[in-house]
Design brief:
single chain, mainly alpha, two-stranded antiparallel sheet
C-alpha cells in the first residue's frame, strides 16, 4: 500500500525589514553593554584598584608602622652622612634594621600611609624612634592576634634601636630607660571562668598553652641558674648580668605569670621542686644559660599573639625585657622573638 505523498511545507514567513532592524539593534546594544562591563572589570583587575572601604584598626596600625619604619630609616641614613665614623656606622645599621622591619610590615595601604606620615625633623632622632616603639607596642595591645605578635616584636626592636641611637648621637639616654612600654590592658570585658569550665577558653585558643609554657620556662630557668651556681660558683655572669640577679628575675617573672593563669581558666601553680636538665647543660651550664635566654623572646612573642587583655599586656612587657637583655650589645634583629627556637629549652630534651 503506497503512502500518500507528504504535503508540501510552506516556507516560514520572513520578518519584515523593520522587525529585523529592531532585532539587530537590540543585539548590538546588548553586546556593547556586555563589552563595557568586561572592559571595566579588566581595567579594575589590571590596575589593582579596589573599592574604598574603611580600614580596620589592625590594618591602620600595620600601615602606620610600615610608613614610620621607612621614614626613620631614611632619617638615619641622612644623619649618618654628616656623623663621625662610629656614629655613622651605628646609624647605618639602624637604617638597615628599620628597612627590614618595613619589609615585614608591608601591607596594602602602606604606600598611602607613607605619604601621610609625619617626618622626624625637629625632634631628637632617638626620641622619634622611642615614640614609634611605644606606638607599636600600644597598637599590639589592641590588634588582631597575628598582627599583635608582629607589632609587639617590631616595637621591642625599636626600643633597643632608640637606646643605641641615643648613645651614638650623644642624646640623653635617661628618658629612654623609663618603664611603661606596655599598654594598659585589663580583662573587664572578657568572659569569666566557671567551676565547670577550667579548660582553654574557646575564643582564645592557644593562649592557655602559651602562658603555661612561659611560666614553665621562667621557673625552669630559675632552677637552671641554681644548678649552674652549684657547679660554677656564684660569680659568673650571663649576658653581662650576675647569675643571682638572673635567677631572681626569672623567679619573679614565673610568679607574675602564675598569677595570670586563672584569667585563662587555669589554676595557679607553684614551681616544681626540680627539672630534668640534659647532659649538655650539666657539662657547660654557663653557655647553656645563654642559649636558654635566647629562647625567651620567642615565648613571649607567641604569647602576645595568642592572648589578649592583661595576659597580652604582660607578654609584651616580658618581650621587651627579654629582648633588652639578649641584644644589649649584640646585633638587633628587626623583630625580636620571631626567629628564636623555644624547642631548644634544655629541659625539653628527652
Amino acid at each position: 500500500m503506497e503512502k500518500p505523498p507528504n504535503a508540501p511545507q510552506r516556507p516560514a514567513a520572513r520578518p519584515s525589514r523593520a522587525a529585523a532592524a529592531a532585532g539587530f539593534l537590540r543585539r548590538t546594544l546588548a553586546l556593547g553593554l556586555l563589552a563595557c562591563v568586561i572592559a571595566s572589570l579588566g581595567l579594575t583587575a589590571g590596575s589593582g584598584v579596589e573599592p574604598e572601604r574603611p580600614r580596620t584598626f589592625t590594618e591602620q596600625a600595620l600601615n602606620e608602622a610600615f610608613a614610620t619604619s621607612r621614614l626613620l630609616a631614611a632619617e638615619a641614613e641622612s644623619l649618618a652622612a654628616s656623623a663621625d665614623a662610629g656614629a655613622a656606622a651605628a646609624l647605618l645599621s639602624t637604617a638597615e634594621t628599620l628597612n627590614r622591619q618595613a619589609l615585614m610590615l608591608t601591607s596594602p595601604g602602606g604606600a598611602a600611609a607613607l605619604q601621610k606620615a609625619p617626618g622626624v625633623q625637629g625632634r631628637p632622632y632617638a626620641r622619634a624612634l622611642l615614640e614609634s616603639a611605644r606606638k607599636n607596642l600600644a597598637a599590639a595591645g589592641r590588634a588582631d592576634y597575628g598582627a599583635a605578635r608582629l607589632l609587639a616584636a617590631t616595637g621591642a626592636g625599636q626600643v633597643l634601636l632608640a637606646e643605641r641611637a641615643a648613645a651614638a648621637l650623644g642624646e640623653d639616654p635617661l628618658p629612654l630607660q623609663e618603664s611603661g612600654w606596655t599598654p594598659v590592658l585589663d580583662d573587664s570585658e572578657q568572659p569569666r571562668c566557671t567551676t565547670g569550665d577550667r579548660a582553654v577558653l574557646r575564643d582564645r585558643p592557644g593562649a592557655a598553652e602559651s602562658l603555661q609554657a612561659a611560666v614553665n620556662a621562667e621557673y625552669g630557668a630559675a632552677y637552671g641558674y641554681e644548678v649552674a651556681q652549684a657547679q660554677a660558683g656564684r660569680t659568673f655572669t650571663v649576658l653581662g648580668q650576675p647569675a643571682s640577679e638572673r635567677r631572681s628575675a626569672h623567679l619573679e617573672a614565673g610568679r607574675d605569670g602564675a598569677e595570670l593563669l586563672p584569667v585563662l581558666c587555669l589554676p595557679e601553680i607553684t614551681p616544681l621542686p626540680a627539672w630534668s636538665l640534659d647532659a649538655r647543660f650539666l657539662a657547660d651550664p654557663v653557655s647553656s644559660l645563654e642559649e636558654l635566654e635566647e629562647t625567651m623572646p620567642a615565648l613571649y612573642a607567641d604569647l602576645a599573639g595568642s592572648s589578649d587583655g592583661a595576659v597580652r599586656s604582660w607578654a609584651i612587657d616580658r618581650l621587651v625585657a627579654s629582648a633588652r637583655l639578649l641584644y644589649s650589645s649584640a646585633e638587633i634583629p628587626p623583630a625580636p622573638g620571631l626567629d628564636a627556637e623555644p624547642a631548644s629549652l634544655p629541659w625539653a630534651a628527652g
